[in-house]
Amino acid sequence: MSNIFKKILFIFSIFVFTQNLIANEQIDVKNKLLDKMDKIIIIVQNKNIPISKRNNKIIDLLTPTFDFELMAKLSLGKKAWKELNAENKKKFTKLYVKRMEKSYSSKLDKYSNEVVEVKEIQQPKKNRIYLITDLVNNNKKLEIIYKYYKPKNQKLNKDNWLIYDVEILGVSILKTDKAQFKEFLQTNTIYALMEVISK
């Protein structure tokens, strides 16, 4: 076997191995999301669970999958984020998470037997995966895209791949928050913003 052929075979084997790894990671991300959605649906369908307890159970399920700290940082913007000390960064992150919990909880109250279908998986970058899904009910579909990234180092009590943004019908939650916060901060302080989102 010539050296050139050996090199071609080696490169090809690496390519196949890499492609298999990528496919396996995509399937793993997909299965984890669907598994969590199934568990959430079971919780929501149980009318014997008080709403506050129901919401806590769901947040516990979702927390390992979402990078709330990164979402809080990106939504505030680099300049405003740098103005906060470590303590206030933690405070803003907690307020941001509470805000998301309220928003998610209000949507759960409107749940009526929808199911989640993954229709496409995209991987625009090595450390990015987009799960393109439909929320289906009575032949009506609502497109939701879950955007994941893979941290260089896995975070404590977190999944390997973490959601950093969600798009609903093409509207990014992260970009919407960032635009709203930026507009508010043009005439107000960060601390005033924290006061507003704490309510």
**Helix/sheet category:** alpha+beta
Share of residues in strands: 15-25%
**Any idea how many domains?**
1
And the CATH topology?
A: Nuclear Transport Factor 2, Chain: A
> Number of helical runs?
7
Given the C-alpha coordinates, what overall shape results? Answer: globular
The span between the termini is 72 Å
pLDDT average, as an integer? 84
Superfamily (CATH H level) name: Tgt2/MlaC
Largest sheet: 5 strands, antiparallel
Order of helices and strands: HHHHHEEEEEHH
Helical proportion, percent range: 55-70%
CATH architecture field: Roll
Strand order of the largest sheet: 1-2-3-4-5
Sequence stretches where pLDDT stays below 50 over 5 or more residues: 5-22
Count of strand segments = 5
CATH class label: Alpha Beta
The value of Rg in angstroms is: 20 Å
What does this structure look like?
With 199 residues, this protein is α+β, with helices and mostly antiparallel strands. It has a single domain, classed as Nuclear Transport Factor 2, Chain: A. Helix content is 57%, strand content 20%. It contains seven helices and five strands. It has helices spanning 3-45, 51-62, 68-76, 78-83, 86-108, 173-185, 190-197, and strands at residues 115-125, 128-137, 140-149, 162-168, 171-172. Strands 1-2-3-4-5 form a five-stranded antiparallel β-sheet. A hairpin with a 2-residue loop joins strand 1 (115-125) and strand 2. Helix 1 runs antiparallel to helix 2, helix 3 (68-76) crosses helix 5 (86-108) and helix 3 (68-76) crosses helix 6. It is globular. The model is unreliable at 5-22 (pLDDT under 50).
